[in-house]
Amino acid sequence: MSSPGDPLASFRLDDRLIVVTGASEGIGRAFAECFAKAGAQLVLASRQKDKLEQVRAGIAASGGKAEVVPSDVTRMEDIARLAATVAALAKGNDRKLVLVNNAGFGFTRDALQTSEAEWDLLFDTHVRGTFFCCQKIGALMLDRGYGKIVNLSSSWSAATDTGKSAYGAAKAAVSYLTAALSTEWAPRGVRVNALAPTATLTDFVKNTFARSPERAERLRSRIKLGRFAETSDLLGAALFLASGASDFVTGQTIFVDGGFTT
Q: Which position among 35, 107, 167, 228 bears the catalytic label?
């Protein structure tokens, strides 16, 4: 808890070991760099080892500490290896564990054109990967009696548009898992919440919108604040959910969407 003289102390992450999946670029990279600046030790996971090393080097150059664990969250053996690394790093120290399930990819496809393979990859990544990362790393938190899990949902979990049936269903499942796991684990000290951004201007999203400017403008017009999100717009909410400041918050999907879903 923060002292009366320092109301921001509870937002510090000096006592945290934070795992970020999908940390090699985009939102995940922004989260990792933000957490490191707030004092956390990081475990960086994604399929792209070279990019992860770049993120690690940047964190180290700023005085932070990060470990790299190349991982594909659709592979159970990779999730198990990631959890084993976290267990080894946590052994013998009292850092509090945090997991940020950010790994995923954007997907827009008309329902009639969505293939079984596309559906399976979407759900294997966003839903199955999120669930089993929660299971394996959440078990370490439960053993310690404290932990934080932050899942990445989406404004599409609660809104509809053409081409978003499969992606929205996957992200709605993430929000459901968030609430359900919080029910199981809150009595044992593990808080589980989700962030649900609107379209965020990562390099991937910028390239997608460049190919379909009419659709981009139509989506932007639905956002009440009049613009798409930048990765920086998500950092405050992520920092809140990862820190002690949110110790009385669990089971929530927090929409950081500029009013898109209201």
A: 167
CA atoms 36, 40, 45, 50: torsion sign: positive
Distance CA 140, CA 35 (A): 20
Q: Is 167 a catalytic residue?
A: yes
Q: List, as own/partner pairs, every contact residues 179-187 make where C-beta atoms lie below 8 angstroms and the sequence separation is at least 24, other chains included.
A: 179/251, 179/253, 181/134, 181/138, 181/149, 182/250, 182/251, 183/251, 185/138, 185/141, 185/142, 186/250, 186/251
- Alpha-carbon gap, residue 40 to 96, rounded angstroms: 10
3-state SS assignment for residue 198: coil
**Model pLDDT, residue 117:** 97
Query: What are the CB-based long-range contacts (under 8 Å, 24+) for 49-55?
Result: 51/24, 51/25, 52/23, 52/24, 54/24, 55/23, 55/24, 55/29
Strand partners, 132: none
- Contact (Cβ atoms closer than 8 angstroms) between residue 29 and residue 233: no
pLDDT digits (tens, 9 = 90+) for 114-128: 999 999 999 999 999
Choose among 205, 261, 251, 238: nearest CA to 32: 238
In whole angstroms, what is the distance from residue 208 CA to residue 211 CA? 5
Query: In whole angstroms, how large is the CA radius of gyration of the chain?
Result: 18
108-162 tens-digit pLDDT: 999 999 999 999 999 999 999 999 999 999 999 999 999 999 999 999 999 999 9
pLDDT in tens, 23-82: 999 999 999 999 999 999 999 999 999 999 999 999 999 999 999 999 999 999 999 999
